[in-house]
Write a structure and sequence with these properties.
The complex is a heterodimer of chains A (177) and B (80). Chain A is an alpha/beta fold and 177 residues long. Helices cover 38% and strands 20% of the residues of chain A. Chain B has 80 residues and is mainly alpha-helical. Classes of the chains: A alpha/beta (177), B mainly alpha (80). At the A-B interface, helix 1 and helix 2 of A face helix 1 of B.
Chain lengths: 177, 80
């Protein structure tokens, strides 16, 4: 009886752990949609950029030293590719807005910083630690996921270019209007 | 086929419930990444004066020939 009980417990315990491990997203899985407000108050919906832009999501925290270390690299990627329809978003999870604003000003971030106030998006994307970089192609499929920016971003970007419609980007359209 | 009485059935039922509940315990103690910033704040440290604490540990080590038990090194963001 006790042996059977221990056996059932072990099976359920490992099954539970296995199911939890399967929760996180992988390369090739569709990116969960979101609607989040940025520091400037603009609302951003992931699905509205489908087919139009390649998306770079960067989950960060103001207290995370690794996030600060990779920031110069992210700023360079954004600078080099924003005219080629790359849309970069920094995503802060559950932090004070004033703190985030100070951080964005200090680092002179040129990309929108989205506020995940209730950590809903972080849970959807299975965030395990900061920082987290995710590259999403024009079809809304995750093409890169990692704790650092991709080593050869230009190679990934040139592969993904075919997934978006060529023409003026959404940002430029807004600027014209 | 062995027949169980009511008491044994109840005992069996509660044992199964306890086993199933215990198997889900593994998910209760996870500190989320966004909560780790709070844990890393100075107010969350065991000692208010780090230098004094190091000195006391050194004294304890030399007098008692024992050390440790004060936690381990690690980052706050769960990345390194």
């Amino acid at each position: 009886m006790i042996k059977k009980g221990i056996f059932i417990f072990c099976i359920l315990f490992f099954l539970n752990s296995y199911i939890k491990a399967q929760d996180s997203l992988k390369v090739g899985s569709p990116a969960p949609d979101f609607v989040l407000k940025s520091l400037t108050g603009e609302e951003h919906t992931l699905s509205s950029y489908k087919g139009k832009n390649i998306i770079y999501l960067n989950f960060f925290a103001t207290w995370c030293s690794s996030c600060k270390e990779e920031l110069p690299q992210l700023i360079t990627i954004n600078k080099n590719y924003k005219d080629q329809k790359l849309l970069m978003f920094g995503i802060d999870v559950k932090e004070d807005e004033k703190k985030i604003r100070r951080f964005a000003e200090k680092w002179k971030l040129q990309y929108p910083v989205l506020l995940d106030k209730n950590a809903v998006l972080a849970k959807k994307y299975g965030l395990k630690g900061f920082p987290l970089s995710i590259v999403i192609d024009g079809n809304g499929i995750i093409q890169y996921i990692g704790s650092q920016p991709p080593d050869k971003f230009n190679e990934i970007f040139s592969k993904l270019k075919s997934t978006i419609i060529q023409g003026p980007s959404i940002k430029k359209k807004n600027e014209i209007n | 086929m062995k027949k169980f009485n009511k008491k044994t059935n109840l005992y069996l039922f509660f044992t199964i419930i306890v086993i199933i509940s215990l198997s889900f315990v593994s998910g209760c103690n996870t500190v989320q990444p966004w909560e780790k910033g709070i844990l890393g704040e100075p107010i969350m440290q065991f000692t208010t004066d780090q230098n004094s604490s190091i000195y006391q540990q050194h004294m304890l080590n030399s007098r008692e020939a024992s050390s440790g038990g004060y936690g381990g090194a690690g980052g706050g963001c769960g990345c390194k």
